[in-house]
Amino acid sequence: MISNNSLNLMDCIAGMAQLTEKSTDLVVADPPYNVGGKSNHIISIEKKFSSIKEEWDTVSGCDFEEFNKRWINESYRILKDGGSLLCWGSRHNLYLCGHLIEKAGFTIRTEYVWYKTNAMPCITGRNPSESTEHLIWATKGKCWTYNLSYAKSINNGQNIRNIFTTIQTPQKERQHGKHPSQKRLEGLTDHLINLHSNPNDIIVVPFCGSGTECVAAAKSGRNYIAFELEEKYLEIAKKRLA
Length: 242
Known about the structure:
CATH topology: Rossmann fold
CATH architecture: 3-Layer(aba) Sandwich
Mean pLDDT: 90
Distance between the termini: 23 Å
CATH superfamily: Vaccinia Virus protein VP39
Number of domains: 1
Largest sheet: 8 strands, mixed
Strand order of the largest sheet: 1-8-7-2-3-5-4-6
Strand content: 15-25%
Structural class: alpha/beta
Number of helices: 7
């Protein structure tokens, strides 16, 4: 039995399969980008810059499409009518995920952009420096949650635009341990949780990592159910929640 406000050391697809149909208000997913896939050759020139080269972020060949299809379809099944899916990505995975999200039955409402003012430069000089990550907001059914009053409260009385401009995740949010793709809590994840859910809602986090979405849910009076395969990252999430 998977309970509310729990961190579960298990595969998210198997975990979500245990959840009741139409039981969830919001899914916030930060899936593997497959940056370490075979088609991505990353050249490291300066040791001070690091790239994501972890086993969980590498899914080869057609398996990557099938993997994304399975967790997206489970997300659709467990979401209530009017529920939302927030899916993070980059050029490595976002176009595929967007296609699969629509095939699952979702409607894509908008794409958020996280512009990181101090992002790592392009050390090869062969491309522009990538300074953004993107987030698909998709909904199930004809109604959805978008808290305009909250949007106005963080933007001087006006509706927000679809761009969040901040520095990268600050060190103070990594004091209990680091995750290589950790999203920042303040000014990003907290805003998204408050925009697309309501107090006492249930938020499912398929890829828990260091638990940023769970912390944001707890701080704002929401419930969370999270899944993670790496025990070392789940321990970081537990410390942050404590």
